[in-house]
Design a protein that fits this description.
Elements lengths: L2 H12 L9 H5 L3 H15 L12 H14 L8 H8 L3 H13 L1 H14 L12 H30 L3 H28 L6 H53 L5 H42 L5 H26 L9 H46 L6 H59 L5 H132 L11 H28 L1 H31 L1
Helix pairs in contact: 1-6, 3-6, 4-5, 10-11
Length: 658
């Protein structure tokens, strides 16, 4: 934190609501404990829970409390153990940085500290959340928290939309002036058109026309909003239908895992394009708008006098523009040397207007074509059950379809060959079964006669098992041969690697010996370098301490010099006023033509105010004495008005019946 930041800290502490009455010197001379107490006082202003005496509070609790509240305020720091120790010990660098950061955004942090009491979530252990009642209470707590947040946002919006009393008064005064001007214009128009016949009908017709135009403008705005909502709803509906079709295709039984993965990849690609194009453009617009707002906020505040001055300048400029337009519109063909260029400019402007009209017409036609294309896509999707594809998607779909067609043809040819072979095998099986039917019955009778029924089946099973065992043994033999081959290859490779690495290993041993020698020399020189660095650092720290002391003395003397200079200027001004008043009183000079000195002027003002006070008291006394009579008279006038209104109604009713 530099001198400028410290000056801002002192100015903020001297203002409301702290009123510390500090100077740069007194602030810089504060001890670590005083700085910590000052920081705690500011945090207490943001949240009364921090109203704790630091001297009675343990250091670990102080560090925990301050760091947790700074985290709530979103202070930019790591909050590690070094930061906490520096904070508790009241190091100036840390405390000054925190004070400057807080005091520069005090209203915002005050609101944040208020909201933190209600919006900071409670940490409930996971094992307690298994209880249903506690979980239900926690859900209610989160719901109430959300309602509070929504209500607070509404209140802030209402406060931001409402105007200050001074602005309202100024706006009311301006509206009253405009009202008076309108009333005067209306009276002038009435006086001009009093003798003209049919003016009342014309006035009513123009009033009705104006109302209808306003109603038409409102209806057009509503129609535009409804069209925008309709377009948005149609786009959303198309997106939902497309998602539904994609999900149906992805979850259908016929789709393979590769097809489902391809569908998900296409969806991810579309979402990425949407994110990079549309959302990226929106983010850039928001960032540019935010930068403009930050630049506006960084500009100095504009006072009411400056606004009035700017408004006067705008009026003067408008009057000047109006005068120049009147001069430009006056016909002076003989004197006007720019008549030709003006005619050319008028022709160019007309051509530009026509071109803009054509451009707007083409834009409307493009929007209409786009809308019709969306409708056709919608009809196509409704009839075909799938979304209309663009050029790239159609190419991709055609390529995939071409590959699937080739695969289908190959599989169909294989299926045809299998079916032909199967027909031959079925015919062969039928012939063999017809031939061996009698043989099977003969073998069964012979086995039953000799008491070995089922011997043929057992023999067949044994033969099958022996064949399978031979196959398994052959596979084992092949596997062992392959394993022995792989082992022999690995041994050969290891021997080759050892042969190739032998010279490198020898070189590595020599390099290790050289490394040890160089490392010993490096350690020796590093020890000498460390000694030199320690000596230089000690001398540097001593010089820095002396420089800081000299800077503190310089700042103190400079502050005292400026303070004495300000007091001297104030004293000179007061002395000048006293000498001027003495000259007025002695008669050498006069304050103005009416008063000799300020004393006479003040005495006259006091007498005037006393007389005004007496008149007001007398007026108040008269009002209090005549209050009942005035109220009774007002009631009588009200009764009289009601009576006259009733008579007027009766007369109007009688004329209507007649």
């Amino acid at each position: 934190v530099g001198t400028e930041e410290m000056r801002k800290i002192v100015e903020a502490l001297n203002r409301e609501p702290f009123h510390e009455r500090l100077t740069l010197v007194s602030f810089d001379e504060k001890t670590p404990l005083n700085l910590l107490e000052l920081l705690n006082k500011i945090l207490t202003f943001l949240d009364p829970k921090n109203n704790v005496d630091i001297r009675d509070e343990p250091q670990d609790k102080t560090a925990q409390r301050l760091t947790e509240f700074l985290k709530v305020l979103d202070y930019p720091s790591t909050f590690d153990i070094h930061f906490q120790q520096a904070l508790v010990h009241g190091e100036k660098k840390i405390i000054h940085s925190i004070l400057y950061w807080i005091l520069q955004r005090l209203p915002e942090l005050q609101k944040r500290g208020y909201l933190a009491k209600f919006l900071v979530p409670l940490t409930v252990p996971e094992e307690f959340m298994r209880d249903e009642e506690l979980q239900e209470v926690y859900q209610q707590y989160k719901q109430i928290q959300g309602e509070f947040q929504a209500t607070h946002q509404q209140v802030e919006q209402i406060r931001s939309e409402s105007m200050a009393p001074n602005e309202l008064k100024r706006e009311i005064g301006q509206l009253e002036q405009e009202k008076d001007q309108l009333v005067s214009k209306i009276s002038t128009l009435k006086s001009r058109t009093a003798g003209e016949g049919g003016f009342q009908n014309l006035l009513e017709a123009t009033s009705m026309l104006r109302k209808e135009q306003e109603e038409e403008a409102k209806l057009m705005d509503k129609l535009r909003e409804q069209k925008m909502q309709l377009d948005w709803s149609e786009n959303q509906m198309l997106m939902m239908k497309q998602k539904s079709l994609d999900l149906q295709r992805a979850t259908s039984v016929e789709n393979s895992a590769e097809e489902m993965l391809e569908v998900l990849r296409n969806e991810v690609r579309r979402n990425r394009e949407l994110c990079n194009e549309r959302l990226g453009r929106d983010i850039m617009d928001k960032k540019s708008r935010l930068e403009q707002m930050e630049q506006l906020l960084m500009e100095p505040m504009v006072t009411t006098s400056q606004c009035d001055k700017l408004e006067n300048e705008v009026r003067q400029m408008e009057n000047a523009v109006r005068v120049l337009e009147e001069k430009a519109n006056r016909p002076h063909p003989a004197e006007d040397k720019l008549a030709v260029y003006k005619q050319q400019a008028a022709l160019v402007s007309k051509r530009k207007e026509k071109a803009m009209e054509n451009f707007h017409d083409l834009e409307d036609q493009a929007k209409e074509v786009e809308r019709k294309m969306r409708e056709k896509e919608k009809e196509y999707e409704t009839g075909k059950g799938m979304k209309f594809m663009n050029r790239d998607e159609f190419k991709q779909y055609a390529n995939s379809l071409r590959g699937k067609t080739n695969t289908y043809k190959k599989l169909k040819a294989e299926l045809r060959e299998i079916k032909a072979e199967m027909g031959i095998l079925v015919r062969t099986e039928t012939i063999l079964k017809s031939r061996t039917q009698d043989l099977d019955s003969f073998l069964q009778k012979q086995e039953a006669a000799r008491g070995v029924a089922g011997y043929t089946n057992v023999q067949e099973n044994i033969e099958k098992l022996s064949e399978e065992k031979q196959k398994v043994d052959g596979l084992k033999e092949d596997a062992l041969k392959e394993l022995s081959r792989v082992v022999s290859e690995i041994d050969a490779k290891v021997k080759d690697k050892k042969t190739n690495l032998a010279p490198h290993i020898k070189e590595l041993r020599n390099l290790r010996q050289k490394y040890q020698e160089i490392e010993a020399e490096y350690n020796e020189k590093k020890a000498g370098f460390d000694n030199v660095v320690m000596a230089v650092e000690g001398e540097k720290s001593r010089l820095e301490t002396e420089v800081k002391e000299i800077e503190q003395v310089c700042v103190a003397e400079e502050s005292r010099y400026h303070e004495l200079q300000a007091q001297l200027h104030i004293t000179d001004a007061q002395l000048g006023r006293v000498m001027s008043e003495v000259k007025h009183l002695t008669g050498e000079t006069r304050l103005n033509n009416q008063f000799r000195s300020h004393t006479d002027w003040y005495n006259w003002k006091l007498g005037q105010q006393e007389q005004l006070s007496k008149d007001l008291r007398q007026h108040q006394t008269d009002i209090r004495e005549n209050q009942e009579k005035n109220i009774e008279q007002m009631k009588m006038f009200q009764d009289l008005q009601r009576l006259l209104d009733r008579k007027k109604e009766i007369l109007a009713h009688g004329e209507g019946e007649s």
